[in-house]
Specification:
The structure holds 2 protein chains of 2 kinds. Chain A is 67% helix and 0% strand. Chain A has 14 helices and no strands. In chain A, 55% of the residues are buried. Chain B has one domain: Alpha-Beta Plaits, CATH 3.30.70. In chain B, the strands form 2 sheets. A 4-stranded antiparallel sheet of chain B has the order 2-5-1-6, with helices on one face. In chain B, strands 3-4 form a two-stranded antiparallel ribbon. In chain B, strand 3 and strand 4 form a beta hairpin. Chain B is elongated and about 60 Å long. Chain B starts with a strand and ends in a 17-residue tail after the last strand. Classes of the chains: A mainly alpha, B alpha+beta.
Chain lengths: 469, 112
């Protein structure tokens, strides 16, 4: 970054000097120098912005890639063949619907000025959201970049929930439910953790919690909402006696790899600049995915005798979920540990807890995202160090204030638990209210005949595959 | 005319086709099937759920042959498909009333 800045600045200096000296042949030296310095400062700022903005736009694209086709493929491969299009359509619908909602009012509710729980309407229709930076959020990138980056998070969060009600929800009900969910649950949670004046905001919130890229905002909310939805909707017909194995592990594999790569945008992009913090988050993300895949694989190898592809990719996703809140706060070795813990923990949640309680969280949205997010949020409080990210600034003596337990700030774990508790509550309550309302209004679940025929035919009049032509 | 239906292991299809061609039988229909006799299936694991897969992939070959080629066909199939293990498959033989060539209305054994 610095080299690039210098390469841009040096020729610019020559240009500025020659221009100024040409045009001010008889002026005194001081104003000319001031003008040069001002021009240099502007040039440096532009160089900084171009590097940061470039990375942020790429990150936004990477996060969108996680939804389409990452999640669409990952989930699509896990369902039965007759539901592949229906499943992919659910993710795709979010790409369309949430974008519109966000542009009109979502960004304002999440990131506008309001109170500790929700923003306001100052940015309705993106009024006031310009190409100039908003120093409340990111000083070196246009606010519109910040807005579009955050939009991609708002898109993927409800898309994650679709895993819980796979193969049995009406398309219309899903669209209505998740649109309302993004307003009622996602926007407040995003505001509380990241928005100006938010209750859980690390800078100045009443209960500062450390959530770098959305462990609570994205994963706990979607995971818990998934569990509530799975319980409300009930099991798929024939579950658990009828075998419903994934119809295409190949698609799921491709989707999982796209998720892994896309997650670099999700976590490292949350640095909101292209500086060293982005590097930390990038490395932590990758390390956690690797050890988590290993952890789940080992657990499964011991438990079942064979390491499965589904286990490996599920483990990787679990690690990525768990490192999400921690990615910009912890050291690389901590990331290895967090990933390994997530691999084992989420394996346990899916294999033991789900089996014991018997709920049909079809694609393990709760087991991986809800549980992994909760674990990751708590471990963030354990492993965060100010040396990586002085999130709480410096004290009077100029020393960075301790962030996590490893730094000596054990109270942070309580703050993390508070953040998790808020996420659990708002998700559970908000989801339940919305499910009830939408069910009363238009009905949530497809009929037994439709469920038998499959979502592709019953909801979309299409078939995913045609083996006859 | 005899109809011969053979359910065999998919991996033996090429060998059986070649053997039948060598025996002078050129017309056949191949179907992909699933099934089992006494052969047990296998278990697969997906996220901790155990699935018993007992409908195994098979290949079914159907052919109608003149009476005098019947034993030759059966021996060709057995020779190519047998491994000696459970799961080798079965051959069913039945009588056929008539056969018609769509192209030119030929009937009987000349239609085969």
């Amino acid at each position: 970054m610095r080299r690039l800045a210098i390469r841009l600045v040096v020729p610019l200096v020559f240009f500025v000097i020659s221009t100024v000296s040409f045009s001010q042949s008889a002026s005194p030296a001081a104003p000319a120098t001031q003008a040069q310095v001002a021009a240099l400062q502007q040039a440096i700022q532009n160089a900084q912005t171009s590097g940061d903005n470039g990375w942020m736009l790429v990150s936004a694209a990477l996060v969108l890639l996680m939804t389409g086709p990452g999640l669409a493929l990952f989930y699509g491969g896990l369902v039965r063949r007759k539901n592949i299009l229906g499943t992919m359509m659910q993710s795709f619908a979010m790409m369309g619907l949430v974008t519109i909602i966000w542009a009109i009012v979502g960004y304002s509710l999440a990131f506008g000025h309001g109170n500790a729980v929700i923003g306001g309407f100052e940015h309705v229709f993106l009024r006031g959201v310009s190409l100039a930076p908003n120093p409340d959020y990111a000083k070196t990138i246009p606010e519109q970049t910040y807005m579009i980056y955050q939009l991609m998070f708002a898109i993927i969060t409800p898309a994650l929930i679709t895993g819980a009600f796979a193969e049995r929800m009406k398309f219309s009900a899903m669209a209505l439910f998740l649109s309302l969910w993004s307003l009622l649950v996602y926007c407040p949670m995003a505001h509380m953790v990241w928005g100006i004046g938010g209750l859980l905001n690390a800078s100045g919130g009443h209960i500062p919690s450390l959530d770098f890229a959305g462990g609570t905002v994205v994963h706990v909310t979607s995971g818990v909402s998934a569990l509530v939805t799975a319980l409300y909707l009930g099991k798929r017909m024939g579950y658990p006696r009828t075998a419903m194995p994934p119809h295409s592990m190949v698609l799921s594999f491709i989707g999982a790899c796209l998720l892994w790569v896309g997650w670099f945008g999700f976590n490292a992009g949350s640095a909101l600049n292209a500086g060293p913090l982005a590097t930390s988050a990038f490395i932590n993300t990758h390390f956690a995915a690797a050890t988590a895949a290993l952890g789940w694989t080992i657990a499964e190898w011991i438990h079942n005798g064979k390491p499965t592809a589904l286990g490996a990719i599920s483990g990787a996703v679990a690690g990525l979920v768990a490192i999400t809140p921690a990615s910009g706060f912890v050291q690389p070795m901590s990331a290895l540990a967090i990933g390994l813990a997530a691999g084992f923990f989420c394996f346990f949640m899916v294999f033991q807890v789900k089996a014991r309680f018997g709920y049909d969280d079809s694609l393990d949205a709760f087991g991986v995202h809800g549980a992994g997010g909760t674990l990751g949020a708590i471990l963030t409080g354990v492993f965060a160090v100010s040396a990586i990210n002085a999130a709480y600034g410096n004290d009077a003596a100029g020393n960075p204030i301790a962030t996590g337990a490893l730094d000596g700030h054990w109270m942070q774990i309580f703050n993390q638990l508070a953040g998790v508790a808020v996420a659990w509550c708002i998700s559970a309550v908000g989801t339940l209210v919305l499910l009830f309302a939408v069910d009363k209004a238009i009905g949530l679940r497809v009929s037994p005949e439709e469920e038998n025929a499959g979502l592709d035919l019953s909801q979309h009049g299409e078939e995913g595959y045609d083996f006859n032509t | 005319m005899m109809k011969i239906e053979a359910v065999i292991q998919p991996s033996k299809l090429d060998a059986v086709k070649d053997a039948l061609l060598e025996a002078g039988i050129e017309g056949m229909t191949i179907l992909e099937a699933r099934g089992h006799g006494r052969q047990k299936g296998h278990t697969e694991f997906y996220r901790g759920r155990e699935y018993t897969v007992d409908l195994l992939p098979k290949v079914k070959i159907e052919m109608v042959v003149p009476d005098d080629l019947r034993e030759k066909a059966v021996q060709a199939i057995i020779g190519a498909a047998r491994t000696g293990r459970i799961g080798d498959g079965k051959i069913f033989i039945s009588r056929v009333d008539d056969a018609v060539r769509i192209r030119n209305d030929e009937r009987g054994e000349t239609a085969l």
